[in-house]
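Researcher: Here's my situation. A collaborator sent me these components and asked whether they could plausibly form a single complex. I don't have experimental data yet, so a predicted model of the whole assembly would be a useful starting point for our discussion.
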Amino acid sequence: MATEVHMHGRIGESIKRKEDGRFLRGKGNYLDDIELPGMLHMAILRSPHAHARVNSVETAAASAMPGVIAVVTGELMAQHKLAWMPTLSYDTQAVLATDKVRFQGQEVAAVVAETKYQAEDARDAIVVEYDVLPAVTSPQQAKEAGAALIRDDKENQKDNHIYHWEAGDQATTQAAFAKAAKVVRLHTFYPRCHPAPLETCGCIADVNGATGKATVYMTSQAPHAIRTVFALVTGLPEQNIRIISPDIGGGFGNKVPVYPGYVVATAASLLIGRPVKWVEDRNENLISTGFARDFHMTGDLALDKNGKMLALRVHLDSDNGAFFADAQPTKFKAGLFHIVTGSYDIPTAHVTADGYYTNKAPGGVAYRCSFRVTEASYLIERLVTNAAIELGMDQAELRMKNFIRPEQFPYHSATGWVYDSGDYPKAMNVALEQLGYQELRKDVEARRKKGEVTGIGIASFTEVVGAGHGAEFDILGLRMFDSAELRVHPTGKALLRMGTKSQGQGHETTFAQIVTEELGIPAADVAVEEGDTDTAPYGLGTYASRSTPVAGAATAMVARKLRDKARKIAGHLLEAAEEDLEWEIGRFYVKGSPDRGKTIQEIAFAAYTNVPEGMEAGLEGVHYYDPPNMTYPFGTYAVVVDIDKGTGQVKVRRVVAVDDCGVRINPMIVEGQIHGGLAEGYGIAFMELITFDAEGNCIGSNFMDYLLPTAWETPRFELGETVTPSPHHPLGAKGVGESPTVGSPAAYVNAVIDALSPYGVTNIDMPVTSDKVWAALRAAGVNE
Amino acid sequence: MKVAVKVNGTERAGDVEPRVLLVDFLRTNLRLTGTHIGCDTSSCGACTVLIDGEPVKSCTVLAVQAAGRSIATVEGLAQGANLSPIQVGFHEEHGLQCGFCTPGMMLTGTALLDRNPNPTEDEIRWAISGNICRCTGYMNIVKAIQHAAMAREAANAAPREKAAAAAGGE
């Protein structure tokens, strides 16, 4: 009789998360929970000015304070050639200021002391003399004649311009515009916001003076890439650097870059010979670490008289802050922004982008987004809704008319992308059906007749995630592949290690399920480890929704390699030819004799005890997966809002989100990711704003000014799905973590604009706060 | 200053400066690191503990203010290997992702259910509105607390039914 195989945790099963136990008991191991023997604490002194010359840094009083071991200044760092560091975008960034400060919150000096309280006390005793300079706080100011030169440290930098970048075809686009019956223009500012993970950034640097080994515990989404960058920055040999990312309390892109605090703490540990912990507080996190967006965008959409899209022209002014430190594939200066044609079959497009230095924090990161696709998706989806309003067409109908059709995949876009797969009309139809769109549209008209202000917004986004392939996508030359190493132990239990790093995405469960599916080892028997560069295979990390598309693929591939070896061992054990064996989940059996079989556990034991003559022992392997293409998740989101005419308050009545991320490995986890992204999208659309006054003071430097959605205002979400597998991913999966933040802001704002369209309002920039809506209604003559 | 408090039912004491925050006392002196620090401004709730049953943001309370009081932290929720209903609810309903807000959320949820065993969705959302979560969008946190409410109700009903059955059998 065949062995009864009951397998728990296959692909498609919503098993409960394996990692929950330690978090539920308060036994997670986050950076600040780690305490090493002899550990010191570091506090960083930051600039109160946005732009100023540093005349002197007086440290004597601070050095004399209780518990102080060292005060580190830019001058000291300069003696070790560490006052500046390279950025991920081939620029330089000050580690500790030596000449000028260039944004409020910039690192000026650091105190290392026995306790956190002592370090902060002494920090306040450092005296810095500044000559304040005029601040530049926008690209518009940055490009004015006579604007203060921010980067006077760079020999050939004569103005504040960083880069000019183009994609698409200018000539054909111009020609198409010349023939257009209708051109719709939208100028919109996607304001600066911040990923604000609940855990801030930090590190513990532990440099062993005897061995020269630098172990750095770090809140990093990309520990291996950080190790290599560290080796390049510090000159330490890479084998002597170990980066350990412990449990991470959310990342959303904020924990990709290398921050000055990491470098200073490591230098301090090296000089002092004791471990040094640095954990930023919330204010430091919001004013100095990787921000997001800050894109000033102008889009022109050319259409014929029937609403068919002919061409798209986009210009972007990007505000990059004081140092060009964006975390993105090196080749693309404005990230993947040129995916801006979105879900539409637009024959030609031309995108231009210019980046500018300003006196604001550096380090543009993609806040839950694949390298600036969020801004691109927002622009095109807002443009399409505005076009529908201007043409007097239905938003859904205009989209349907212009969607890339299912039979056009693989689709070559006007700006050079090759979309892998999609069925946009289907996702749209599922969303409209779930929403009850036709009825709701009538209801909206009826309510408007009664004087209510209400509307429906739609966004049909296309994401581009899962970088590489390595030939096109690299960071400082590091190809964006990823990796998985799988070891099956003699008792049939397994250890899987990857080059990615979960920050809450549930990798310990999802990736175990891939092993279950491919090798038939129950998910409960597969331990998943990430984040320790001394043990995990090299990878580029977790961001840009790349873990499942890349490391997930690597996991499937390595499991298949082991299955091939297991087949050989099974043949040996069963005295049968390999080709006479059939695989069913968890076992090989002889064709026609299902009772003659060997389970994967039996085969694993034999791999260490009884291998065929000439075969290497063991059942272990590693796979480096360089994807053939990006994956292109998509979906349609629909939002219904009601607006209070008297106060301008926007209430989100419904949110329907239909996502197609290809094959879902653990649907429960996928839905959880979508919920989270829809909430962050809500925050971005209505609440979250980092802004600056004329002197460059950061407004939005704490959670009382930088507003995050709580359970009270966050809407309820209604999810739906379609499944269009990726044709090139071994499991058909596409990645999902960022789709909802990419797609939802436009859906929320489109609903507001739809509601206000009877009053002639065509745009309100995010965050769409009550005062802006109120002012728009007043400007339209509403005085209730 | 000497501070003596009861933490999760056990008397604990420490010698701290008067300015030391309760969250630092718990994390550094008592090494109870399940209570987290997210904002320092009592905005995010990651540091929520219960003092005499009431949710309190321990980043905004001095350790000395808690002297003589009874403090509950996440480490005290489970009884040995048995998770409390709120912990089971968060696991079953996928109410956590990165886990950083989870201890504070569970303590706030526990305090809510202690005073209101059967809350509506709005009551749950209002109760946890001082605790920020960046990962879940709150949908599953609400379900987790509802799950715990039902489990607690069932647990409370069970002894009554048993008693009633026993009484009926006599």
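Model: Some features of this prediction you could bring to your collaborator: Residues 78-170 of chain B form a domain with the DNA polymerase; domain 1 fold (CATH 1.10.150.120). Chain B touches chain A through 57 residues (CB under 8 Å).
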